[in-house]
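Ticket #4471: structure export looks truncated?
Reporter: QA, pipeline team
Priority: medium

Steps to reproduce: submit the single chain below to the structure queue and open the exported record.
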Amino acid sequence: MEILLPEKVRHIISVLNGNGYEAFAVGGCIRDSLLGRKPKDWDITTDALPEQIKKCFDKTVDTGLKHGTVTVVLGHEGFEVTTYRIDGAYSDGRHPDEVSFTANLKEDLARRDFTINAMAYNDETGLVDEYGGEKDLKAGIIRCVGDPMQRFEEDGLRILRAVRFCAQLGFEPEKNTLKTAGLLASRLTAVSAERIRAEIEKTILSPYPEKFIIAYEAGITKYFISETDSTGDIVRAVCGRLKEMRRLKEAGDLTVSYVPKENEAGLAWGLLFSELSEKGAKECFKRLKFDNLTARTAFDIISAGKLEPPKQDDVSVREYASLVKVEKMPYVMAAECVKEEYAGNVGKEYWKAKDFYKRYLELRSLGQCMQIKELAVDGNDLIAAGIPRGKQMGEVMDRLLKAVLKDPEFNDKKKLLELALTF
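Actual output as written to the record:
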């Protein structure tokens, strides 16, 4: 696969070369280019020191001088340019205590996490692949650069990054890399909850979310979501649901494709934790420091999954929507439809969630009332009719809604006021 450097990247490399320095595009951009994908970012590595880099360009930003990184600004774009470096000890299990600069590209590539991320390229030299990254790309393998024990001891988050790359690319971990990840999984206890959650979230929202099973089978998940470690069958089932979610989304299925973007992560987490108790789910949300929206979405999905499957008649549709809450129905029903599709694939019966949701949308399009705020009367109307504020009014409104859920034609102001006075 030919690597086509963007013009601005080529310009930066050319300027550095013209000043007597080496420079290469490096890392994920080379990996993605070899896979035929469009890189999101282009990083550049060079033997020029940070102060030397700054002298070569009109506009730069000091984004990480301690670690040798300068951002070169061309137009409205910024490109990180980093000096070849060797990392010192990782006493915190995440970041090097110090770095030292080197003039040797191979030494810089040696410190990187996986072979597929340890390749460099420029037009003059071509591909620099000291550790077999291109071969592993073709074989679909995630392999540590050098000794996996050293790589994972340096940075425990790399254990989850290995799983995430498998999920994003559809790859498998190299045998020794996987074995070592399991042996050193306790290093994740030194990683912040936010970083762990972010890696898992990227994994379950990836093209191959079912690869999350790798973390479970390697004994990794017990260090951050032990609640999922009860049985392998449960974990395999939820991973199957994640795979089904991805399939339905790619197929343009309305139940998944129309879930609001802000609820997409919550949907995936809700499916991953779908077999947990509500208490267990809350403990996970707290431990991994979820944001409120994602936690709320996932919890709504888990809670709805504990309800008795509703009947298929229109009254049951309205009552279920009222119980679950109308604003939650898109992602709650998306989760139920995903579970239904997965259950159908393995030969189990389900409650026809897809047909149920279709009918719900039809009833909504008819303007049928399914929540108190859609009643033809409000608190002011009841006060005018002599019903005082407080507990009594709340009880009256609840009873009026139940009447309308059974018969939508009853949602008439006159009828509702007459009924209210009989309670």
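Status: closed, not a bug. The export was complete when the record was re-opened. Leaving a note from the reviewer for reference: The radius of gyration is 28 Å.
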